[in-house]
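TODO from last week: model tRNA pseudouridine synthase A.
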Amino acid sequence: MRNICMTVSYDGTAYNGFQIQPKGRTIQGEIEKVLLILTGETIKIHGSGRTDAGVHARSQVFHFHTESQIPVERWAIALNSRLPDDIVILSAEEKHLDFHSRRSAKRKTYRYSIRTGKYPNVFTRHFEFHHYSPLNTEAMRSALSHVIGEHDFTTFTSIHSTKQSHVRTIYEAKLVVEDDVIHTYFTGNGFLYNMVRIIMGTLMKIGEGKIKADDMPSILAACDRSKAGPKAMAHGLTLWSVEYEFTDIPVTLAEQARG
């Protein structure tokens, strides 16, 4: 038995999320269909986490077990020749059988992108939320600083969350402005259902002047979803990276922002 670990990048626009659903196309479903063709095995892949419908990934990690003897250096080419154009395998490597893409992950980074201004950009519209009016980015930065650290993020998760604990640690949170686009990066040990999108919806209300930046600590401490802003649209969110103990020195957020 072999344990193959892969990194995949995808445009989530046309998909009902990463994980297989009763209805609709999913990233997992498309990959598993190709694995069946390549190996003749019914393989279930295990992702480092879920992404919602319409959410993208620059670097999602998954693993699977197989008896196939396809050389590890051939896996990415073999899958990419059969996958849809909006799903691309970036790398493949063989791991010990005890490696698990989700349980072994140490840090994840998400990026949320907002384009401000009168008009959206037709070429990047699937990856940026268009906010037609200016936002106070300094107020947003000030509020953002309060989510760093270990907190109970009940305020910033869906009321339908099934997790026993809503305590998570945000190691870094940074807002970067590039021309008319605001990129916000969150790096943490894990994220709750809709957590980044609800934080971003709250930050946009702060940027609009409808919530005060100084209110962020009390909003967080309330552990009450009704105290936060609306959930931001899915298409502005990208799973940026997943880090493991075997990775190199982590890239800084400033380096990530430069691409």
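Done. Confidence is low (pLDDT under 50) at residues 246-259.
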